[in-house]
Structures are given as structure tokens and as C-alpha cells.
Design a protein that fits this description.
With 102 residues, the protein is mostly helical. It has one domain. 63% of the residues lie in helices and 0% in strands. The protein is built from four helices and no strands.
């Protein structure tokens, strides 16, 4: 059995022909997964904001993991620029620094 490297999902859709049922199902699942990842980012950032300054490390780690997973999911959907998401969710600089994004 041979393996080939993953291709961009966006590249496999032909713009001239309508997507078939499988393509629609894949796009729907990608959108749902991105939505779930975004909800997790919201929950973890809210917990981080509610935590006292002295005990934020567990919440900071959870928020960093959630944001990292969200960024990966965005990239799998073909969204490479995260600036809008950072502004939308209000991702703090402390989280971005832990990701190496700053």
C-alpha cells in the first residue's frame, strides 16, 4: 500500500462543477469541527479571565492548548491568517507568547 501526502481540501474542489454529496459532507464536518474548537477557545479564555492572577497557570495552559488546536483547525480549513480570529476572541498576548505567535 502506498501513501501520499495530504492535499489541501480546498484544492480538491473544482470551482466549475458543483460539489458532490461527499464533498458537501466533508465541508460540513470541517465547519462543525471549527465551530467546536472556537467554542472551546471561548470557554477556556473565559475561565482564564475569571481566574485570580496568582493561580492562572492551569487556565493559561488550557487556553493555550485550545487556541493552538483552533489555529490548526483553521489551517486545515485553508484559513492561514489568524489575525481576525485573535481579534474576534480577544486572545491575550500571554497565550500568544506561549504559542510562539508573537
Amino acid at each position: 500500500m502506498s501513501f501520499r501526502p495530504p492535499q489541501s481540501i480546498a484544492a480538491r474542489f473544482d470551482r466549475d462543477s458543483p460539489p458532490n454529496a461527499l464533498d458537501m459532507e466533508i465541508m460540513a464536518e470541517m465547519a462543525a469541527a471549527l465551530g467546536r474548537a472556537g467554542e472551546k477557545v471561548e470557554r477556556t479564555l473565559e475561565a482564564l479571565n475569571l481566574a485570580p492572577e496568582s493561580g492562572q497557570l492551569p487556565e493559561l495552559k488550557a487556553a493555550t492548548r485550545a487556541v493552538h488546536a483552533y489555529f490548526i483547525q483553521r489551517e486545515l480549513c485553508g484559513l492561514r491568517n489568524h489575525d481576525d480570529a485573535i481579534r474576534h476572541y480577544g486572545i491575550p498576548r500571554t497565550v500568544l507568547v506561549r504559542l510562539g505567535a508573537v
